[in-house]
Amino acid sequence: MGVAPLTEILSGPFAHRYAVPAVNVFNDLTMEAVLAAAVEKRSPLIVQTSVKTVKSIGSDVLYAMWTSMTAGIEVPVALHLDHCPERDVITECLRRGWNSVLFDASKLPVEENMRQTVEVVAEARSHGAAVEGEIESITGVEDGVGSDTAAAQQSLEVALEFLRTTRVDVFAPAIGNAHGSYRQAPVLDAQRVSDIVAAYPVPIALHGGSGLSDEQFHDLISRGCAKVNISTALKETFMKSGLAFLETAAERDTWDPPSLFRAVRRDVVELTGSLMTVFGSAGRAG
Q1: 191 vs 208 pLDDT, higher one
Q2: What CATH code is carried by the domain that includes residue 235?
Q3: Which residues of 236-245 are buried (b: 16+ CB within 10 A; e: fewer)?
C-alpha cells in the first residue's frame, strides 16, 4: 500500500482486465481530491502532472505536496510525468522522486525515438522508476504538447520492434483516440490493442479517455488497456463547478473562498470515484 511502482500498480489490472485511472492534476486541490477519491473507493490511482504544471508550480513544490498528501495513504498510488518530450524535465522529475514518466518522442523518426527511449529507460531504472513510451502522436493538444494533425499509424511490426528494443513498461498506441473533447463519437481501432497485447503482453495506456462511452472503456480495458488517462474531464469539472458556485455567490453577494474550494473538491472527488467504478478499480485496493 502507499506509493508504489507503476509496474506493481498495473500488474493486477492487466492480468485481470480492469484499469486504473491516471488523472492529470494541476494544483493542490485537485491532487488532494483525486487521492481522497482513491481512499474512499479503495482504488489504486496514478496521479499525473503535465510538463506545463511542473514548470508553472515547480517540481520541488509539486513533490512536497505529493509526499505530504500520500504520507500514510493506504491505497497504491504512483506519480507520473505525462507527455514529456524534454529530456531535462524528465531528469529533473526522476531526481525529485516521480516514479513514472512518459517520454513523448513521437515527433521523432522511430529509430531516433527508440534510441532516446532506451536511454530514458536506463535513466529511469537507475531511480527505480517506470517508463511509458509511444511511437505515434495522440491527436490533440494537451497542456501545450501535441498537435491537432493525426499522425500516421505505424505497423504492428514497428510497434513490436519498439517494445522489444526499448523494454518500456507501458505502451500508448494511437487507436483513433484524441486529447481534449471529442467533436463527434470516435471510431476506435480496438483490434490494434488486442494485436499488440497478443504479440507482446504489455499494459496499454489509453490516452484521450475523457468523453469515451462506458461501452468503449469496457471493451478496450478487456483487451489490455490497464491505464486510462483523464485530463479534460477533470479540467472541465473543476472550471464548471467553480463557475456554478461563483454565479450563485454573485446572486447572493456572499463571498467565501473556503466554501468554493469545498464545492469544487466535492465534484472532483465525485468524478474521480465514478471513473474508478466504471474502470473496475474500485474496491481493488482491499
Answers
A1: 191
A2: 3.20.20.70
A3: ebbeebeeeb
